[in-house]
Amino acid sequence: MVVVVDLGEFAEEGFDPKRWINAALEGRHPQDPLDRFMADAEESLRSAADGIADALERESADALRRVPLACRDVLRLRDDAVALRSAVASILSSLREAEGTSAESIAALARIDTVKRRMEAAYATLQDAAGLTQLSASVEDVFASGDLPRAAETLATMRHCLSAVGEVAEFANVRKQLEVLEDRLDEMVLPRLVDALSNRKVDAVQDLRRILIRIGRFKSLELQYTKMHIKPLKKLWEDFDLRQRANKLEMEKHGENAASLSFSSWLPSFYDETLLYLEQEWKWCINSLPDDYKSLVPKLLIEAMSELNASFVSRLNLATGDVVPETKTLAKGIMDILSGDMPKGTKLQNKHLEALIELHNVTGTFARNLQHLFSESDLLILLNTLKAVYSPYELFKVRYGHMERAILSSEITRIDIRGAVSRGVGAQGIELSETVRRMEESIPQIIVLLEAAVERCINFTGGSEADELILALDDIMLQYLSNLQETLKSLRTVCGVDNTTTHSDSAKKDAGLDRKEGGARLMDVVSEEEEWSIVQGALQILTVADCLSSRTAVFEASLRATLARIGTSLSLSVFGSSLDKSHAAPVDENAEVFAGRAALDVAALRLTDVPEKAKKLFNLLEQSKDPRFHALPLTSQRVAAFSDTVNELVYDVLISKVRQRLSDVSRLPIWSSVEEPSALPLPTFSAYPQAYVTSVGEYLLTLPQQLEPLVEGISGSEAGNEEAQFFATEWMFKVAEGATALFTEQLRGIHFITDRGAQQLSADIEYLSNVLSALSMPIPPFLSTFHTCLSTPRDQLRDLIKTDGGSQLDLPTANLVCRIRRISLD
């Protein structure tokens, strides 16, 4: 049996002989004897050790033989390195010597080359000068020959020679002569160019174009092309006046029933015919002027729109007036109304602006067709073309803020907030209810008006006047809220609390001590049923305030989202960064920013010409991304102020009955009354609460029922129902606290009370305390102390106060009761 030995295991770090032997024993066959296996393993290890020793001896002998040879090779390489170093040093020395000589040679060659080039330039200049003199002398013969291409070439050569000789006094006359000759050749080309363009001679147009380009007069071709082809476009435009006159004659001939021609119905046909004409010119120029058609045809339209601009604006203005009979009769439009050149009472209406937007949409369709037709043109040219198409509307867009203010102001005047008929005593509840209903109905109406204004801004200006829109909306909302406040102020008279101190005053005034008697006298003559009718109507005003707050908040959130969409569509993040580089950035640079996707964006087209306005708008749109941003800041403040005023009015109405019942409590004669002496013994009876406090208690206990309609009006969901319940409970507590404060103030005004009066007042306080407990209201320490001190006999009160020491009783209140009952604590 041979034991296989892996010698690699012995070379491993941490080799353990015992572990290796145990592992070898575990790997033996169970039938092999242990001693024989151990002997075989020992023999295998000895054999392996002998093999290793033999190999080591052979390798050592070979190494001893190779060492002397390696030493000799090292010595030879060292000698070679020394020789190489010496050779390299010699070469470097030679290079240093050659470098100095070469630098001097190169410098000399450079000077020679400079002289050579100057001589060549002088020679060329002399040749040009000689040629210029010769050309100047022979140019008249060239012109006389009538060979226009040759004349153009001659003039181009003269121009080149003049640029070569520079500003030499001897050739000043030649320079003037050249300018005259170029004008002369331009005039000679002109009639032929007119004929070639008129008769569609492609070859002739191309030849004449080359002549003009050769003498640097390509502008002449552009001007002549534009001058010739703008006439058909102007004729198309004048067709409207011709058709109007013909229509007028037709009306005079057949009577007034003949239909009149409107600009809004004619404009689409004008755009269609214009587009057809431009398409024909585009196709022809592709063949005749393949290098220029991309700019030539768009510039034709730009010039045409420039000449038609004033007339276009005038027709737009009159077209906006045609939609309203009043302005149509006067032949006036939006601009006339804004300038005040109208009869008094004439107002800008929504229909005027809608007509303008409809015309703008027609122009937008034409602009999109142009973008498709001129898609191969340079982006800047395309952008300028589209701006020219929209240019007639610019005057209206600049005054968009004024238009929107005028329209919204006119619309607001139609909203009848105080439409209820004034009624006399006994019908205030009906008047109040009708007015509150109109106030509540006006809120969704005004929101609809605001939303329509936002839609008009986007449709007409693309959002470029969003900043003016926001200012207009804020101003209009202030006007509307001012109307609400005035109506609310008049409702104080209807509710009988116009002279009552408001809830925002101090506690003493809240108690009614400084109240005038006008409101009280009015309430004295009002029936119980009418009182509750007024209370119910006043509570509905809370629904108005809640509706106003929620609807304005929702609209403002929607407005912020709209501003964000406008910012995205305009890509103002890119435009704003370009403006930061320079406030006076050229129009062309800004145009390149918008030239891609936003080329048709109406707002982007405008903003390229007004970088400062664009930057202002960009800042606004950036701010609108913040949830804390108030798009209508003044409106938000006024809505909050309106809610506060509503709360004051409602509180005054709810507390007015309490204030009326408790107004003279401190001066009731029963407090100072004494029991009449009697000869017969009479039974003693417990005191019952008086009418004034029972009336107040019944009112407070009935108040939750009056608040139920308020809960139903505010709640719209489960969450809203919980909120409304809390709102109603809060008002109930507020009125109960106010009643308690009024009663407390009256108690403080009592100067003297007898034992009989104390017994009666104790019963009154106990009743009111029970009412407060029923309403889950805590009993104020003042009332509980007052009640305890009044219900305690005179001879025991001093000991009670000393014994309590302030643990249960409010000591200042207890001292007050002692002064009222004339009890000395000393």
UniProtKB/TrEMBL annotation:
Pfam family for this entry, one: COG7
Keyword vocabulary terms for this entry: Golgi apparatus, Membrane, Protein transport, Transport
GO CC terms, sorted: Golgi membrane; Golgi transport complex
Protein location: Golgi apparatus membrane
UniProt-listed InterPro entries: COG7 (IPR019335)
A single BP term in Gene Ontology: Golgi organization
Domain of life: Eukaryota
Protein's membrane topology: Peripheral membrane protein
PANTHER family noted in UniProt: CONSERVED OLIGOMERIC GOLGI COMPLEX COMPONENT 7 (PTHR21443), CONSERVED OLIGOMERIC GOLGI COMPLEX SUBUNIT 7 (PTHR21443:SF0)
Family designation: Belongs to the COG7 family.
Protein name, per record: Conserved oligomeric Golgi complex subunit 7
The gene coding this protein: LOC109727319
